[in-house]
Structures are given as C-alpha cells and as structure tokens.
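Following the same procedure, sequence and fold were stored together, as reproduced here.

>
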Amino acid sequence: MENMLHLAPSSQAQALALDRSSVFSREHVPPAVSAVTSLPVIDMSRSRDEVRRAILDAGMEFGFFLVVEHGIPEEVMRDMLEVCEEFFQLPAASKAYMYSEDSQRPNRIFSGTTYDTGGDKYWRDCLRLACPSSFPVGSGTRDDWPHTPQRLRGVVERFTALTRGLGVELLRLLSEAMGIRPDYFEGDISAGDVVLNVNHYPPCPSPEKTLGLPPHCDRNLITLLLQGSVYGLDVAYRGEWIKVEPMPGALVVNFGQQLEVRI
C-alpha cells in the first residue's frame, strides 16, 4: 500500500536553474491533456451498495477515482500538508543526512533539483518513508525518520494510520462488489509497510521543458494521494490524458498493478 503527497512550491521560493539533464525531448513529454473527461468522484457517505458498485465501476473503467466524505478529518490532512512543507523549506544542508540514491534504503530523500545526482533529473524532491502497518510502533522503528520539524513524526503516524484504514476499507468494498470474501486482500497481501512518498515540486523556470515524474504505473496494491494545491496530475485514459484538478477534502485513489494481477 502506498500513500503519496504532492506539495506546491512556496510562493516565496526562488526558481532554480534548469540544466540540460532536466530537459526532456517532446517524445518523452505526455500529449495534450483532454478537458472532456473527468475522474469519478465517490461519496463514501452514501449507502454501502452504492459505494461498492461505484468503486468497481471506476476501477474497471479508469483504475482511478476520487473519494470524499471518507472520514479522515480535515485537520489531519492539513497538518500533513503543513508539516511536510515545513520540512522541505528547511535548508538543504540540514536535510542532507536523509539524502540517498540507494533505492534499497527505506527512509530517505532523493532529488533532481537540490542535490547533484548525475544523469536525467525529474523536477521534484521526494521524501520517502516506510511506515509500519500498525501504530504505535516499537522503539527504534522511526530512528531513520527526519528529526525536524519536531512534530513531523506524530503527524505522519496519524495520517498514515488513518489512510491505511481507508485503503483497507476500499479493498473490502471492492471485494464485496466482486463477490469474493471481504478480507481477500488482508493478511500477507497488504500487511507490509505503507510506503509514504512526499513529492515536492520547486518553482521551475521552464516547466514546459521538464517533467516532475515520467509517465508510469504504480506497481503496488493501492495508492491514496493527497494532492494539496498542486496542479499537474494526469491520468492516461483511452490514449489521452485526464487532468486531475485538486478537490478540497478529496483523496485520489489509484488501483496498482498488484491489484490488477490479483483480480
């Protein structure tokens, strides 16, 4: 299971220089976004029958949808956005201990803008944290998490616990809609760590020449995304791209490749 957070640049931040390794040719840039189709919005407060049918329909048609009235308090989402923005506004030197290009390291920062990585660079900074499947966690579990801001660890724990619970409930509803046992995706299939990716996109002098992320498929079971105020998420649909505009209070849900294989 994966949680993602997309953060807009601070209004006070200065645009960084765009070097050759951050510029992509036209064939690597997604085609124009369609303005005709939008993703389904599922109201979790409606009847269980309506919700599970809507989840199945949206999953089969798009693999993506938005959920509202999902039970995660607004203050939890707001705190998560704020504390992660505080983290990225810290000086680069004070976050350097978290930096690593080792993909096997579960807790780290990697970046295409702030630190020199070599090779192609995508225009984002990412904080990746491995979050246990249940809280409270044992001593030492969070030792590799950021030390500052001081409240970050508690905020991340609360946000991750609640979003994981929502993810499990969405999978139960999907299972019911397909006529299989509700706990089909529980146990070993979803018992691992929740991977939290916090994506931060600094101001870019020429956004039409670069990419924050390349076109890709999520390889996990299910992803829940809190967009914040960031515009730029596109979803591939029938050879075109749907622009997903941020919706206050909503979470974007993406069924990953593991889920597609399982069903």
